[in-house]
Design goal:
The chain is built from 13 helices and nine strands. By secondary structure, the protein is α/β, with parallel strands linked by helices. α9 links the parallel β6 and β7.
């Protein structure tokens, strides 16, 4: 229709060519809108987004051209306000123990949209986390957009390497860090959540562990490799198995992965890169199986490096920089967007994936890493000096 209308504009008779161009464009726009509204109109229940752009003065370089840096920092401010309403929805985030990681940012983004937040925390750090909450250690990081404070309605002890009580060995039961705790296997936590809330809507897997993560794969033991897979990949499978039956139709499962799943990242060893590859493969399979069985979506976010408490512990040696510090610097030097990556960036992307706006997205890996995943050349390498 658009092509036909433009053909009339440029190839019609003399009087047609003399018509006001704005009139023709208006007609074309009206016809196109009326056609697309019928064929492609989204459901009203999906949600709404509003965009506004405010133009500012553009600074130009001495030769009169707009430089890349100037274009990035000025010219136009694009503001997006997505009206995502999750009031009445319950979100369970597994793997939160402080306010420095992606799990906390995801919880905060969901809380901003009105979701009820419940959390699963690793038993050995549960008391420390609860004490920090009582003391107000996380108050500053809990402030929502409206000035209120995020409320974590309930915290469940969760050890995601155990599926049911029969899996828990005596050495764990007798461990003083587990003293006074029970019901922390995935199956038991799912039953507790069902008893407390009935059906829920969102489950986020924000946990990983590799006891030999500092070892190269060639030096990783079978025990260490399987431990990384169990805690970082199979735990997500188990969450979907056990929480799937208590999810509302249209619900969302989401996990966090890392680019080491597909590219070589020296220093991220102990089978962790393999575990992340498993996680991404399982995401696709679970999207099909859980989608058909429970009418839920399953996605993962490949997040860029963040200096969280857990990440900072990798390769930590006195007087030396940590692994995560090197990786953050590498990312800023080589990613298409040379900017800091914040936990809120992943939180906001997670909000989208877990919301009705993403109702047709499942089985996907969404990269939130300033575009680093697209690069095939290290821009800061001495071997390419003079080329870039």
């Amino acid at each position: 229709l658009i092509g036909f209308s433009l053909f009339i504009v440029f190839c019609g008779e003399e009087e047609t060519r003399n018509m006001k161009f704005s009139t023709i464009l208006s007609a074309v726009g009206a016809l196109t809108l009326s056609t697309s509204t019928i064929a492609f109109a989204p459901s009203i229940a999906v949600g709404k987004s509003s965009f506004s752009a405010t133009t500012r003065a553009i600074e130009k370089s001495s030769n009169g051209k707009l430089t890349g840096r100037t274009a990035h920092n000025s010219s136009t401010q694009l503001k997006m306000a997505a009206n995502i309403d999750l009031k009445g929805k319950v979100a369970f985030i597994a793997g939160v123990a402080d306010s420095t990681g992606y799990g906390w940012a995801i919880a905060k983004a969901l809380a901003n949209a009105g979701a009820t937040i419940i959390i699963g925390t690793w038993p050995p750090v549960l008391k420390i986390f609860q004490m920090g909450l009582r003391k107000g250690s996380f108050d500053e990081d809990s402030i929502l957009d409206d000035g209120s404070k995020m409320e974590i309605e309930k915290i469940y002890p969760l050890d995601a390497v155990f599926d049911n009580p029969e899996d828990v060995p005596d050495e764990i039961k007798e461990n003083k860090r587990y003293a006074g705790l029970d019901g922390y296997t995935i199956e038991e936590v799912a039953k507790q959540v069902e008893a407390d809330y009935g059906k829920i809507d969102i489950v986020v897997h924000s946990l990983a562990n590799g006891p030999e993560v500092t070892k190269p794969l060639l030096e990783t033991s079978r025990k260490g490799y399987l431990a990384a897979s169990s805690a970082s990949a199979y735990s997500f499978v188990s969450l979907v198995q056990n929480f799937g039956p208590i999810m509302n139709a249209g619900g969302s499962f989401m996990s966090l992965t890392y680019i080491a799943s597909e590219k070589v990242i020296p220093g991220y060893g102990g089978g962790m890169s393999s575990a992340k590859a498993q996680l991404e493969s399982d995401t696709r399979t679970l999207a099909y199986e859980a989608g058909r069985k429970y009418d839920v979506r399953v996605n993962t976010i490949s997040a860029g490096p963040l200096k969280s408490r857990a990440a900072s512990a990798i390769g930590k040696e006195p007087g030396q920089r940590t692994f995560i510090e090197y990786i953050i610097d590498y990312s800023k030097e080589n990613a298409p967007l040379a900017q800091d990556l914040y936990s809120d960036d992943v939180g906001n992307a997670s909000l989208f994936l877990c919301s009705p706006l993403a109702r047709s997205i499942t089985g996907s890996t969404l990269y939130v890493d300033n575009g680093l995943n697209t690069m095939g050349l290290a821009l800061d390498s001495k071997s390419v000096e003079g080329i870039v």
